[in-house]
Amino acid sequence: MNSTQRFVSLQIIACMCFCSAVTAAPNWPTYQANPAHTGYVPVTLDASRFALRWEKLINLNQDGLSVLNPVAAGDGKVFVSTHSIFYDVISLLALSAADGSTLWTKDFGFVSSVNPPAYSNGNVYIQIGRAQENNGRAYLRAFYANNGDLQFESEFGAQGERYYAPTIVDGTVYIDGGTYGGMYAFDGISGSQNWFISLNQWHEWTPAVDAQYAYAYLGGTPTGNFNPGVWIVDRTFGTQSGYIFDPNFFWHPPGMKLAPVLGGQNDLLVIEGGRLLSFDLANQQIRYELSENFTGQVSVANGVVFAINSGALTARDQATGSLLWSWSANSALQGEILVTRNHAFVRTQDSTYAVDLNSHQQVWSYPKAGPMAWSEDVLYIAGSDLVLTAIDAPPPSCDDGVSCTVDTYNQETQSCDHIPSDTRCDDGNVCTDDSCDLIADCIHVNNSIPCDDGSACTINDICSDGHCVPSAPLNCDDGNFCTDDSCDPASGCVHANNSNSCDDGNACTTTDTCNSGSCVGGPPLNCNDGDDCTDDSCNQTSGCVHENICGACCDQSTGLCASSTLAGECTCARCQWSLGASCEDANCTQVFVPIPTVSTWGATILSLALLVIAKIRFARPSAYR
Predict the structure, then answer these.
(1) Global pTM?
(2) What is the mean predicted confidence (pLDDT) over 566-593?
(3) What helix, strand, coil percent values describe the chain, rounded to 5?
């Protein structure tokens, strides 16, 4: 395989891997939409739905400013820089795509140029021309898109040039630069320089990049090395891999004012000096050259080349350059062309137009003009009056009239998708199963799952007929007589202390009362029975206990002798018997025989004597009776 065959194979592979990726990006990261600079966004739009979203004057007291640079946009933000030359003013702004509010700003001081930004992977990249101070250095700077903090700044060789937006592919940033012309590649995260290749000294351009190569179309110089044409640079090593000579280049200072366009058919297209050129990358030669009155920047989409010729929009066959159709406005068209699947957006000096690609007729216009960008359903116009205009430019409406479907326009299939969403049918009722039907809309079917009726005073709630029904009340009885038990629907069981009469379980206390949730015993039980023949005490279980301390002497219930063998009256204080008393029958019935009062000891002796006599009497033989 020779070098040409190798280049062709690699270029075809690169396009297969890269060109499809270019058309898939929803953002507008760099000049003319993508690293190939096709100006093509693979979306279908509905011109009848175009409407102004917001307008913002980017003035900031910048005397001498004339235009805004082309913008970059994505992820809900739009990044705009001002065409300032040696003005110490705010020169880079991040705006909200939703309402145009300012998110953050940057002032670069007195520099030779502030150039268009590029956006990739959450970072904003911009080239800043040489400053009056700091030894006149020029920088590639990267800022975090979310807050504007500086990620890195990398110095590059420069004089007083202006630049197009950087081109970013796979985390590598490619720029025009060099003191005497060339191309740089920087790491997009660290800012370290990967390589530099010296090229002809021209400014106001940016390379086109695919999976394998970076491309520059540059004119020759009026003296010295007059070699205009296309340089093909290896992305990995920064070395020249090919070159296509353009013998008819017309020298036109001060800058190129273009970016080469990769058409995806092994071709690279440019407009230069009134000519439309298509370069055959496979054979490294010019495929065709149309020398008419072409101006502006060429765009390519779906096998069609869009270019302005003599102030009119022309659509040409990409392979041959033959004219397919054209459209003219009331005044000459200029600048870049933005192409979607069904529209070409073009501009005059003061107005922007949308031309339908099927009818070849104008379907929309707006009285503002400037470099355009499309991102996330918004068309941006960076006006020459320093007003950035945001136009809602959405796809066709896909509303199917079913409230629960997510209706979106599928840009890949160019048709509507209607995806049912059960969450859109949520009626807030746990007792219904909610679902989305593509025809019947939301359906709510009653269920019988456990639920919560919102009351803490019910348990085992269950769904029934679409309502949450309690199965039983909450049992709040805590078994404590000293609390009043109730239920609060918000918090549940409530146990309030009371002061009821109660029983503390001790038979030896009286008038027990509830206190602080517990039963507290009152005064002790009085067990004094007034009988000095007993010992009085209390048992916590049974209550008062009266223990007879005289043994068999007394019958506690009668106060008499407790035994028929004993006679006399009990005197418990002494546990003795009194004379003149008898206790003869089994029932201890007292038989009272009055006797003279005697002393205690005398009565005792007398009682014993009578007892002896009685025994003798009853013991005699019957013969003696």
Answers:
(1) 0.72
(2) 41
(3) 10, 45, 50
